[in-house]
Structure formats: structure tokens, C-alpha cells
Input
Amino acid sequence: MNIAFAGFRHSHITGIYKAALRTADVSIIGCYEGEPQARRAMEESLGILFNYQTYKELLADDLGDPEMLGGWHRIDHKKKVGDK
Output
């Protein structure tokens, strides 16, 4: 299973991230966090490598077929996903 994380401010997303790291058949294929303080906190506490600077950049990249895209705090799904 491929997972791309778009945001880490939702209360349970770090648990999902940690579980993905422990699961052999799961690949984390992308990480994004738009809020600089939250990004630094996750880099320091979990060692997350954020390989995208914008949400649009993550969506525009050829990630194959991610089976899960999770974590954006207060995402307006229609607006953000439709704005590829």
C-alpha cells in the first residue's frame, strides 16, 4: 500500500504515520506540511522528511496510485483536490 501524507496537524495522523513505518507492505511515498512550525516539530520529533513544499506539488507529482492521502487539517476536499 502506498501512502502520501498531506498535513500532520490532525490529532491522529502521527499515529498513522508511525504505524505505516512499522508495516512491511506499506510505503510512504510523500509528505507535506504547509505550516512551518508544525513541519519543524514533526521533523524534530519523528524525523519526517518533507519532500513537498506545496499540496499542489504533491498532487502533481507522479506518485503512482496512492491508496491513502491523509492528514490535511481542515481540508476543503472539493476545493483542494479539484485544484490539481
Notes: The chain is about 40% helix and 15% strand. The beta strands are 2-6, 27-32, 68-70. The chain has a mean pLDDT of 78.
